[in-house]
Each structure stands twice: as structure tokens, then as C-alpha cells.
Amino acid sequence: MHTQKKQELRQGVLALLRKQKEEERLAKSLVIWDKLFKKPEFQEALTILFYAAFDGEVDTFEMMKRAQQLGKTIGLPYIVRNEKRMIPIVIESLEEDLEIGPYGVQQPLDASSHRRLSRDELDLVVVPGIAFDSNNYRLGRGQGYYDRFLKGLSPRTPTIGLAFDFQLVDRLPPPEEHDVPVSYVLSN
């Protein structure tokens, strides 16, 4: 019903993400990184599920390296495409443990040889989005992986969306029953 509106918004924001100059993207990402690292939810978290930025998204690779240096365990989603679900996997080395997965996103090499993280082990989930609204609802890429995953998280687990200023909108099309808002959205 609101699919067309969502699709138009998704296309518009994706175009802006792709058009952004790399140095501008990294400079804005640093501002967001700084905000994330100052959040008590981040500081207290021992195990964090990040996302592997791609296609112009807020850069997470430097954040992950720094989080590891701070002694935090970091995970990334492994996509099981035929089951339409994602499995959080511990990443030891961002240089050696990643490959290009479905949809062109970097993901852990394989789910069997690396440690899986249960949802209960996650102290914080950093969430990508194409757009976020003032009620912290997100518009994803339309596959529903994150919505399904977030729905199964404990309500006590904080979730933080990362977005550039142009990804923030007043209102997304009315949320559908499977949409799950994030706890916070951090922007530059």
C-alpha cells in the first residue's frame, strides 16, 4: 500500500548516498563515530553487532577497528539468503575474515568456522538504514533481514541507527506490523 512511497524515498536517498564525495562521507562518519563512542550504551557494551558499510553508508570499518582496540568483541551479520535471516558472527580480523556476500555486502567468511553470537550475548546492535524518522523507525533496503532480526532481540538490548543528516526524515510511511524502531539514531 505504501510500497511506492517507500520505494521512491529509498531511491532518492540511495542516489544521495552514492553522490556524496568519499572525503565528505568519511568526515561525517567521524562525527557520528565520536557520538557513538560517547554513548553509555556503547561504553558499557562488551559485545557489539555492527554492520559492514557499503554503497555510501556511514562508514563502520574504522569504528569496528577502534572498538576492537578497546577490547570489545565485534560481530557482523552473516546472511542466510534462502532462509531470509542473518546470523551474528564474531569477527577477529577485518582484513582476513570477510568476503563479499549476497547483495554485495561484506560479511564473515562462513558461519560454520567462526563463533556465532546468540542474541542474548549482544550488548548493542548498530543498525544501518536508508532513512530514519523522528520516531526512530527505519527504512531499510527492503529485504526485511534487520526487521526480522530486531524483532527477536530482547527489548533491553539497545539498538542504534547511524545516518547522515539527509537520511533523516520527519515521517516515514506508516510503520507496518513487522517494523521495529531503533532505540536511538545518531547523525552528523
Could you walk me through the main structural features you see in this protein, from its secondary elements to its overall organization?
This protein has 188 residues and is α/β, with parallel strands linked by helices. The chain has one domain: Rossmann fold (3-Layer(aba) Sandwich). Helices cover 29% and strands 23% of the residues. It is built from five helices and eleven strands. The chain has helices at residues 3-19, 22-38, 40-44, 61-69, 145-151; strands at 47-49, 73-80, 85-90, 98-100, 106-108, 124-127, 131-133, 138-139, 159-163, 168-169, 184-187. The strands form three sheets. Strands 3-2-1-6-9-11 form a six-stranded mixed beta sheet, with helices on both faces. Strands 8-7-10 form a three-stranded mixed beta sheet, with helices on one face. A hairpin with a 4-residue loop joins β2 (73-80) and β3. The protein is globular and about 40 Å long. The model has no long low-confidence stretch (mean pLDDT 93).
Q: Which band does the percent of strand residues land in?
A: 15-25%
The total strand number stands at: 11
What best-fitting shape do the alpha-carbon axes yield? Answer: globular
Count of discrete structural domains: 1
Low-confidence stretches: none
Write the element-wise H/E pattern from the N-terminal end onward.
HHHEHEEEEEEEHEEE
The biggest beta sheet, please? 6 strands, mixed
CATH superfamily (homologous) name? NagB/RpiA/CoA transferase-like
Over the alpha carbons, how many angstroms does the gyration radius reach?
16 Å
In CATH, the architecture is 3-Layer(aba) Sandwich
Trace the largest sheet across and list its strands.
3-2-1-6-9-11
Distance between the termini: 32 Å
Bin the helical content.
25-40%
Per CATH, the class reads Alpha Beta
Tally of alpha and pi helices = 5
CATH topology, which one? Rossmann fold
Q: What structural class do helix, strand and pairing data support?
A: alpha/beta
